[in-house]
Amino acid sequence: MAKQSLKKTYHRLRIDPVKRNYLTQAIMISVYIAGTMAIIAIAPKALELVKPLKRIWKRSQNQQKYYISKKIKDLIKKDLLVIDKNGNVSITATGENFLAKETKKENINNKADWDGKWRVIIFDIKERERRKRDYFRIELQESGFIKLQNSVWISPFPNDDLIELLKQDLRLQSEIIYFEATKIPEELEKILSRTFFH
């Protein structure tokens, strides 16, 4: 995987974050280009790339730290990143392969490749679980969903495995409903098609 190609993706993320896995890509590209990076240096670099996330986290810097820290731990668990005893993070061979596949997906925005199904999420997560709710919303946005209403999100991308993992990880089973729809209001479909497909 050529670093020059990834650097182009890196700079493009600053202007127009990809619709799917953009925070994951920002973290992994930052680490890959650096070769190795102190774990405390990753969050500022990732946030610099994905400026739209700052709007989501405008309430609290602690939310930023919590979410990015959890995301890095998830990537380490998946063997995409590895951390040494000094707290320095580097990308694994598995991570390089994953990143190569993800960067190729950036160009797949052709409606002809779409299966015609809309993936819809409806959730009702109580205020006492606000931290989980905020985390869930950010995961939805990173995975290619956009918000129709506060608790209704939609995407054309298959996300069955992700949603099931989130439900288990956050212990939110009955609070989250996920289903596929082949027909939605015509005007809404036009707007969504313009949003998702270039």
TrEMBL record:
The lineage of its organism: Bacteria, Candidatus Vogeliibacteriota. InterPro entries: PaaX-like_central. This is Transcriptional repressor PaaX-like central Cas2-like domain-containing protein. GO terms for biological process: DNA-templated transcription. Residues 112-185 form the Transcriptional repressor PaaX-like central Cas2-like domain. The chain crosses the membrane at residues 21-43. The keyword Ubl conjugation does not apply. Gene3D superfamilies: 3.30.70.2650. It comes from the Bacteria. Keywords: Membrane, Transmembrane, Transmembrane helix. It comes from Candidatus Vogelbacteria bacterium CG22_combo_CG10-13_8_21_14_all_37_9.
